[in-house]
Amino acid sequence: MKGVNGAFLRYRIMAWVTGVVLAALTVWLIVGYGFLDYSNVESKPALYGLLWMLHGWLYVVYLIVGVDLAFRLRYPVLKTLLILLAGTVPFASFFAEAWVHRDLKRRDLLASS
Fold first, then answer.
1. Per the domain annotation, does 14 fall within a domain?
2. Residue 112 resides in a domain
3. pLDDT at 47
4. Where is 46: in which H helix or E strand?
């Protein structure tokens, strides 16, 4: 299949970047509300809100590269949706990327890795 390696590399990068940002924000959320009392809007650092906005834009790019990869691999709709939703659940994008990597190896579609 043409372009699978490039599409997978783009997906892999976005899965990790999106996952790391979401994981960091989730830990920050738990610490902030559990121990630092973020119940007041003024007590939240500005960076916290900016990172959530950044994650939103990163997730849009993640959706684009995920759909591109799913179309190239001819994944069914349910499999595609699960891969795309993995970018919204903390740490799930790491597992989704590993699953796609195993699937590509099983199907012998990766040039080398």
1. yes
2. no
3. 85
4. helix 46-73
Total structural domains within the chain: 1
Structure pTM? 0.87
Note down the domain range covering 37: 4-106
Give kind and range of the element (H or E) at residue 52: helix 46-73
SS (H, E, C) 54-102: HHHHHHHHHHHHHHHHHHHHCCCHHHHHHHHHHHHCCCHHHHHHHHHHH
Q: Are 58 and 14 in contact (CB under 8 A)?
A: yes
What is the largest distance, in Å, between two alpha-carbon atoms of the chain? 53
Residue 27 covered by a domain: yes
Closest CA to 1 of 75, 61, 65: 75
* Digit-coded pLDDT (tens) for 16-29: 999 999 999 999 88
Q: Decide if 113 is inside a domain.
A: no
